[in-house]
Amino acid sequence: MLAPARREFPQSSPLVLESTAATAYLECLQQLERLHRLMHDLVKDEFERLGRHDLNPVQALILYNLGEAEVSAGELRSRGMYQGSNVSYNLKKLVTMGYVHHERCDLDRRSVRVRLTEAGQDVRQIVLDMFHGHAAQLAVSGVLDDPPLDQVNLQARRIERYWTEQIRYIY
């Protein structure tokens, strides 16, 4: 079997690095990292304000992303982009704490399906209410209008699609 072709990236010449597009892309990557960390801090602060110290932000966001669905851990990983061992560990903790119900799939006994319990739904609602409050405040301030957030989301989906294609290209 032939080894997969190695991807060649353009050499980083000063002209490439100074280009407006490359600079904006690198800034976008840094901003995404900061936003992700800040979202975790916001969730942590909200739960501390409510006196809820039993969940960490990752666990609360797993409950939020699980939503009304009944899914396998693999599906949750692909939807929420959680790392494999991280999501497995946190799901086990959430089951133990009574936030998630799990059962073996009838068709494939190796697969476990998970869904929120009533307590898990309550946590999801806390996070959802917090996000709705943020959206309302940002809408009033006009932050979501320039550029329109739907255009920002479209661009993010395009970058996501490109990254996904890059990962598939490797394998």
UniProtKB/TrEMBL annotation:
Domain HTH marR-type: start-end pairs: 25-161
Superkingdom in the source lineage: Bacteria
Name listed for the protein in its UniProt record: MarR family transcriptional regulator
Any one Gene Ontology molecular-function term assigned to this protein's record: DNA binding
PROSITE patterns: HTH_MARR_1, HTH_MARR_2
BP GO annotations: response to stress
InterPro entries reported for this sequence: HTH_MarR-typ (IPR000835), MarR/SlyA-like (IPR039422), Tscrpt_reg_MarR-type_CS (IPR023187), WH-like_DNA-bd_sf (IPR036388), WH_DNA-bd_sf (IPR036390)
The species this protein was found in: Paracoccus tegillarcae
Pfam entry (one): HTH_27
Stored PANTHER family: TRANSCRIPTIONAL REGULATOR, MARR FAMILY, TRANSCRIPTIONAL REGULATORY PROTEIN
Gene3D superfamilies: Winged helix-like DNA-binding domain superfamily/Winged helix DNA-binding domain
The keyword ATP-binding is assigned to this record: no
Keywords assigned by UniProt, alphabetized: DNA-binding, Transcription, Transcription regulation
